[in-house]
Specification:
631 residues; alpha/beta; six-stranded mixed β-sheet; five-stranded mixed β-sheet; 21 helices; elongated; binds adenosine-5'-triphosphate; binds magnesium ion; ABCG_transporters; P-loop_NTPase; ATP-binding; ABC2_TM; ATP binding
Amino acid sequence: MTAPLHAVRVDKAGYRDHGSPEKSAQGLDSSGLASNAHEASLELEAAAAADGAANRQAIRVTLEWRDLRYSVPVGRRRQRTSRTILEGLSAVLPPGRLLAIMGPTGCGKSSLVNALAGRLPAGGTLEGEVLVNGLPRGRGFKSITAYVMQEDVMFANLTVFETLEFAARMRLPPSVSAADKMARNAFVRGVSGGERKRVNVGIELLSNPCLLLLDEPTVVATIHQPRSSIFALFDMLLVLSEGQATYYGPAAEAVEWFASCGFACSAHYNPADFFADVVAIDHRSPAAEEASKARVALLVERFNQQQRQRQQREAEQAAAVAAEDRAAMEQMNDRPSFPNSLPVEFSLLLRRAWKQQSRDRLPQVITLVQTLVLGFFLAALFSDIPSTLAGAQDELGVIFMSCMFNAMASIFASLNTFPVEAGIINRERTSKAYHVSPYYLARFLCDLPLRLAQSLLFGVIVYWIVGLKSTAGAFFIFCALTILLALASQALGVAVSAACPSEKVAFAVAPGITVILMLLGGFLVTYDSIPVWIRWLCWISHLYYAFMGLTINNFRGQSEWSCTTPATPDCTARSGDAILTRLGFEDKGMWVPFVGLACLTLGFNLAGYAVLRFTKQKFLPLTGSTAKKRA
Ligand SMILES: Nc1ncnc2c1ncn2[C@@H]1O[C@H](COP(=O)(O)OP(=O)(O)OP(=O)(O)O)[C@@H](O)[C@H]1O
Ligand SMILES: [Mg+2]
């Protein structure tokens, strides 16, 4: 921890706590939270140091932003206009400083920090320049920067220790062994919002960042922490109002500046509260709104009047970036951005996914109980199938329902689990913690046992109670085909949920896929009855291959049935082979469904991976940047 930590911290002043109007303004009270999280991370870092793990190179960072303008489109099509959120903000932040960005809610604090971190969502326009040690942000920027977002997302079934341990191992190069035991404190059993925030700060501190961006590290105000004492810790202060700067400079000089503009802060008043009151727009009445807007306009104007003086000071600070800091940053930009090798990433992700999944017991228990219930129900319905042609028709029904069960259960399982992780995965991918391929493989392997258990359980119950072809070989083929079907369906579910913008959309799309799958299954409409121009769809339907395989497995070589009782309207197809001919499977070898299902399992998995790989969160690029290196 030798890096000159340089932190930008966003605090909301003059704003009430979420959902609790009685609580006092939450502005600057609890940076103790951040320091506590730091203590938790220190244990792990000590362990890392003891193991001789190479720590990230510490470099001094001068952060500079010039004329940052951010606007977003608002309104519907015809009335579409543009709303400016950041109005030309400029500043230079020398190394080793703690900057607090303050202002009322909605003034643009998060937008500014996101703009600095390069994480504004796509869909607006961002103009200006962000320079790190005089250089535009390059590949090395993410590896020296830690960013704690305003919202905290993390796995619910991992303990605090495991979450931090994973971050330490994944973000530090290569082997970091963490302390053996730590009190288990699972999130599901209750970790408060504040504790969650600490863990997120801890995760980011573990990578030993040179630049730390914190969006609202405070959560709840506490009376025993006087806010003015925390305010005294800040080196620099940026006060925003409606996307404009009303003050930027040393925090200690802010009171004097506001006083020189005619807004004197009395001695017993907390400066943070005072600034918030002065720059807030009062919407309680039109007159109050007008007066507060005029006050802010005056402050912005005064602040801009000093621009020449400020620009000179900032230019001096920017010019003071040491050549060695610049060279160090250039070196960081040339380095590979992932800290660990693919096998290390894979083993860490596999361990985490396994822990997360194996502790999430309820859905697994429900899955297995439901399989038992449905299996016995289906078996009970078809337990008395006669050895007649009508009975053969019933067997076809059982085979088709087995296909549907395996396909649907696996698709819906992926639709359920995958979107839950998306927020965390996006955050980790944005900080270049790991590649997508080991993540995908780890998820696939973790899902495997449940898919196998479900298919086998269902198969054992239905196959023997209903009394499908009673040879061991036929039973094993039945199990192999249904397992392959489940795996292909799981991959299809991942691809669909990764391609959909939300869980809700994924579930809205799922019924459509189910119906198409059912129709292409080969049972409701036979292959030959489908119009030629859409017949090819069967060849990319995993349900069709599974149904084909299971039917061939059950009926090929079956002797003739009687068709007297119960009376059968069509009594021509009386042997197993005749049934296969009617379904269009007579000339298909057993290898066809196996190869088809294997290819589709691979294909759907590749599609799932590709969708995940290429649908990563898009961030707004910086335009209008001169992007040239400063001399
Ligand atoms: N993508 C967007 N589209 C439309 N409006 C946006 C977008 N992003 C931000 N805004 C608006 O810009 C303003 C500033 O948002 P921002 O999140 O930066 O505020 P903030 O100062 O961080 O507020 P808070 O203190 O509540 O976190 C808000 O009024 C917000 O509604
Ligand atoms: Mg915010």
